[in-house]
């Protein structure tokens, strides 16, 4: 397979593995066993708390915020062309790769996948009173203002972080080149010794 080189050494490895499969299988068996031993029902208190969590996430406009975040990530990644010294002839290939990458993120970590785990998490850590107080805040003028301004705050935070990370990335890249050179020299030296033996 031909490797695409983008000015700077820019190689992306994406490994999709499922190390949690044995754990999920074990938890499934444990759940079945528990269901046979006890009357497995959700209490009214827990049901009420989960409803409150869902209302809180609605007031926070979480789904819209996640969509906005992915839009911003997509634009930020497409804007990396200059830093990565993408050639004009490579732009279409680069943009296709970046758009496919963010589409995978949307599919695997979209609202449909995140909603129930987030409800579980909030219901686990917050009491009904705490949830009620947060819902009241997000329904208030200040809370609504916070929700409306949050996408812009997130966007500017990402730009700020990207700018602050540039010197670090240059140093990391230099270190990576240095390590690759040292590793290559080490392997060549050891290969020569093995041949001599």
UniProtKB/TrEMBL annotation:
<dbReference type="InterPro" id="IPR018637">
    <property type="entry name" value="DUF2059"/>
</dbReference>
<feature type="domain" description="DUF2059">
    <location>
        <begin position="113"/>
        <end position="169"/>
    </location>
</feature>
<protein>
    <submittedName>
        <fullName>DUF2059 domain-containing protein</fullName>
    </submittedName>
</protein>
<dbReference type="Pfam" id="PF09832">
    <property type="entry name" value="DUF2059"/>
</dbReference>
């Amino acid at each position: 397979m031909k490797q695409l080189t983008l000015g700077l050494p820019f190689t992306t490895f994406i490994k999709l593995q499922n190390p949690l499969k044995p754990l999920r299988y074990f938890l499934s068996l444990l759940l079945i066993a528990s269901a046979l031993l006890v009357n497995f029902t959700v209490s009214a208190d827990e049901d009420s708390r989960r409803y409150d969590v869902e209302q809180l996430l609605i007031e926070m406009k979480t789904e819209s915020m996640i969509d906005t975040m992915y839009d911003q990530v997509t634009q930020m990644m497409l804007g990396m062309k200059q830093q990565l010294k993408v050639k004009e002839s490579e732009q279409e290939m680069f943009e296709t790769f970046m758009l496919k990458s963010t589409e995978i993120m949307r599919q695997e970590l979209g609202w449909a996948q995140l909603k129930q785990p987030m409800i579980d998490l909030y219901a686990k850590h917050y009491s009904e009173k705490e949830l009620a107080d947060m819902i009241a805040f997000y329904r208030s003028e200040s809370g609504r203002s916070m929700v409306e301004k949050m996408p812009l705050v997130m966007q500017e935070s990402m730009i700020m972080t990207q700018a602050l990370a540039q010197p670090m990335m240059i140093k990391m890249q230099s270190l990576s080149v240095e390590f690759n050179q040292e590793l290559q020299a080490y392997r060549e030296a050891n290969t020569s010794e093995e041949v001599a033996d």
